[in-house]
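#struct-help
A.M.: can someone run this one for me? Single chain, 104 residues.
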Amino acid sequence: MVSQTRRTFMIHTVGLCAALAVAQRAQAGAPLVDENDPAARGLGYRAKSSTVDAAHFPKYQAGQKCENCRFYTGAANETSGPCPMFPGKAVSADGWCNVYAKRA
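D.P.: on it. Structure tokens below:
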């Protein structure tokens, strides 16, 4: 009986590890948003926040970046991550768009 429980545990553990690896690879494989994409242009997305034209986007303030926006769901210390404003694509952690909202 003990070996059956151990075997079941090992099978479940291997399955879980495989599922996590696939999920991580799928997230990491998301293409970066192109600044010339129509949705990106509509939201004023810039891959580097330092290149935002503050005259054109008066909402922008120095220090605002995707990585500290409430909508950015990328992991800490990652260079890019997902954002619901651009489904299926990743944004630069150093980026900015007009939907920026400071993370609480």
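A.M.: thanks! The radius of gyration is 19 Å.
D.P.: also worth noting: The mean pLDDT is 85.
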